């Protein structure tokens, strides 16, 4: 009987200590696992995922087919021309109207790493002005987004940007989505989109 109890305890500890599942969201070859919303351009070149404004100059989104509630996501981006974009989480999209939360990816002095709620409350938290110099314009940057329950943390190039709690976010679920802002003239390169489930 003691052996059975001990085995059960060991098995329980093993399950509790099971590592998070690591998922590569972008395969470097095509848009498998993603869905395009809108008429803006999404394509793969030299192993990179590129978003670019199309002739309509409207909002565009590329969203995962799977939903992810609790995760730790790392993504690299490089802005060319106007880099106004973003990474949405726990989002849903109809046409080009998105419900969810965006971690901002934008030109310098425009709150890259801040959290914005589209078609809702707007800015939930902007980054402190002294952190605007962490973004490297026209170079590769690494964004990390950790979302667990109602807790959201963002990091840019290894530096903490936002640490917040929000009940509405905590109750939601949905896809990861990349954005092209409206207005035209936008181009952003993406690579190494890796997510760990929590």
Helix/strand layout:
Blueprint: H1 2-16, E1 22-24, E2 34-37, E3 41-45, E4 48-52, E5 60-67, E6 71-81, E7 85-94, E8 97-105, E9 115-118, E10 122-125, E11 140-148, E12 151-156, E13 159-165, H2 167-170, E14 175-180, E15 186-197
InterPro entries: AL/BT2_dom
Protein name: 3-keto-alpha-glucoside-1,2-lyase/3-keto-2-hydroxy-glucal hydratase domain-containing protein
Pfam family, one: 3keto-disac_hyd
Write up this protein.
The structure is a single chain. By secondary structure, the chain is mainly beta. Helix content is 10%, strand content 52%. The protein contains 2 helices and 15 strands. It has helices at 2-16, 167-170; strands at residues 22-24, 34-37, 41-45, 48-52, 60-67, 71-81, 85-94, 97-105, 115-118, 122-125, 140-148, 151-156, 159-165, 175-180, 186-197. Mean pLDDT is 91; it is low at 4-11.
What's the assembly state of these chains?
A: single chain
Principal-axis shape equals: globular
Uncertain runs: 4-11
Amount of beta strand: over 45%
Distance separating the two termini: 34 Å
Structural class: mainly beta
- What is the CATH-assigned architecture? Sandwich
Brief description of this entry?
This is 3-keto-alpha-glucoside-1,2-lyase/3-keto-2-hydroxy-glucal hydratase domain-containing protein. By secondary structure, this protein is mainly beta.
Features:
15 strands; mainly beta; 10% helix; 198 residues; eight-stranded antiparallel β-sheet; AL/BT2_dom; Jelly Rolls; seven-stranded antiparallel β-sheet; 3-keto-alpha-glucoside-1,2-lyase/3-keto-2-hydroxy-glucal hydratase domain-containing protein; 52% strand
């Amino acid at each position: 009987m003691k052996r059975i109890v001990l085995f059960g305890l060991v098995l329980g500890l093993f399950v509790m200590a099971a590592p998070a599942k690591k998922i590569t969201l972008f395969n470097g070859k095509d848009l498998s696992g993603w869905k395009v919303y809108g008429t803006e351009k999404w394509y793969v070149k030299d192993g990179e995922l590129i978003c670019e404004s199309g002739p309509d100059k409207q909002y565009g989104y590329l969203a995962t087919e799977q939903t992810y509630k609790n995760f730790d996501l790392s993504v690299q981006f490089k802005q060319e021309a106007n880099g106004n974009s973003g990474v949405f989480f726990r989002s849903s999209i109809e046409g080009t109207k998105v419900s969810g939360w965006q971690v901002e990816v934008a030109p310098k002095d425009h709150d890259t790493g801040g959290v914005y709620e589209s078609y809702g409350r707007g800015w939930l938290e902007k980054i402190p002005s002294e952190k605007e110099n962490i973004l490297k314009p026209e170079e590769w940057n690494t964004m990390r987004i950790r979302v667990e329950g109602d807790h959201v943390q963002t990091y840019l190039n290894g530096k903490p940007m936002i640490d917040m709690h929000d009940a509405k976010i905590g109750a939601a679920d949905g896809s990861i989505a990349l954005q092209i802002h409206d207005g035209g003239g936008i181009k952003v390169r993406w690579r190494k989109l890796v997510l760990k489930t929590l």
